[in-house]
Each structure stands twice: as structure tokens, then as C-alpha cells.
Amino acid sequence: MGKDAAGLLSRVDDLPPLPAVAARVMGMAEDDKTSAMDLAQVLATDQALTAKLIRISNSAYYGFARRISTVREAVVMLGFKQVRQVAVGASLMNTFKRGQDDGFDLDLFWGHSVAVAVAAEALAKKSFAVKPEDAFTAGILHDIGRLVVRQVMPAEFAQAVAMARRGECSLHIAEQIATGYSHDEVGKALGELWKFPGHLIDAVRCHHDESLTAGDGLSGVVAQANRLVLHYGLYCGYDLEFGDLAPLPPDLADVEAACGGIERVLNRAFSFIESASGTPETWYAKAS
After folding, report:
1. Is 11 within the bounds of a domain?
2. Per the structure, how many domains does the chain have?
3. Domain limits at 23?
4. Among 4, 172, 175, 266, which residue's CB has the most CB atoms within a 10 Å radius?
5. What is the pLDDT of residues 86-130, one digit of tens each?
6. pTM to 2 decimals?
7. Are residues 23 and 40 both part of a single domain?
8. 40-55 pLDDT, tens digit each
9. What CATH number should be reported for the domain holding residue 116?
């Protein structure tokens, strides 16, 4: 357990808010009274997000037979919860600072996050433990605390990245050594600040708990998806080249099978990021 994460957030003046439209979509997707037209009207106030939503709806990620040309069609075809996952994912990709010279690669960060989201979604569909849309959203969000630590303590975070890239330990451990904070606890505090639903907050907090299984609900689904993606070397914001992969443990092999194989996970993640940002090549080339 690291230092008090809520205390860290309380002394940050320039912490970015959750983008306004994404915040409203989060709440509306949980409200049974919300109509497709209500949700479409809110989304239409953000032109950039609207364009991404339509582009993702027409991408290979969903593979709809008919072409979607309006926000309302996208909401009807995808459903409220899937619109939430697209809105949150696409919005957060532009929320935190780029360009810090610390060895941390935001393209790899989002590549990891979306791959975990895709794996969690697939695992949820197989296990019937949680709603797949919730699993995807939690996967996108699971490492969000790391971006806060990076922004608030850049020098210390750069030290942590250097330790991880040298292979001394995982970035999760290195950041606790260098900063005193654990990104899963910071992510939990951020989720509370941004008023995420409780089950999403729990999944963010527990995503490194490998004792959880897919039968343990949303937290277990995300933890196992994260474990699978890390096993295949798609790290969170940095790259290593240490030779051959270790053999898959039997339980993790079952997780991969439930996800349809790691190649399917990476291909679907590629499709999502390609549509959301247009620049997937950096992480995909390293993950392939």
C-alpha cells in the first residue's frame, strides 16, 4: 500500500477533468429513462467525439453490414453501454499531457489499455460474469491512475520508467519505489472524484490482484485480462526486448482461449485505436 492517493489528488491544481460530454454519457448510460435521441443530442455537442463515434461504428471492430452515418444510428446500433465505452475511451485518449521526455510512450499506454479492454470484453462474454460493455470500459480505465502519477510527479515517474525499462522490476513496483504511490489506488481515487460507478472503481483498484478469477465479477475479469496482455509483452507505456516468452500457465491458457486468442485481441484493439486516434502503428508493431 502506497501513500494516500486521495491526498495526492487534493493537492493537484491542474488535474484534467473527465471530458464533459464523456462524463454526461457515463451517467446517461446508467439511466433507464434515457432515450436514444437524448444520448445522441448530448454526443452531437462534441464534434470531434461525434466523428470518432461514427468512424468507430463503421470500423472492423464492430463490422456492421450497413453503413452508419449519424450519431442516432450509432446509438441505436451499438446500444447505450457500448456508446459509453466508445465515448470514454476516445475522450480519455486526448485528456492527459503528451510530449514528456520520460521514456513513457502514450501510444503504448493506450495500446495496452485497449487490448485489456478487448480481452476483458471477450472474457465477460464467455464467463457471463459481467456485462461485456462494463468490462470494456473498466479495461480502458484500469491504468488511468498511472497518468495522474506521471503528471503530478514527472521526475520520480521518469525514474520508475527507467527502472522498468532496465528490467529491474515491473513498472507497477517501480513507481511505488520511486513515487511512494500505487497507480491502482490513485485510479480508485480518481474514479471517485470523477463519480464513476462503484463496480468500475473496484475493477480499477483490483486490476493487479491475480488471485481474482473471471468468476469474481468485473474486478476478476479485468485482472485476468490485464495478466494475459502483460504476459504477451504489451506493457503499459514502455517496451522490452528480453527474448522468448515464458510458457502460458494452464489457467492463463484458459483465459486466452476464452478471449479467442491473443491475435484476435490485438487485431480488435488495433481496429478500435485506428478508428479512435488514427495512429495505432507504434504499439501494434511492437505487440505483433
Report:
1. no
2. 2
3. 17-95
4. 175
5. 777 777 776 665 667 788 988 888 889 999 999 999 999 988 778
6. 0.84
7. yes
8. 788 778 777 787 788 8
9. 1.10.3210.10
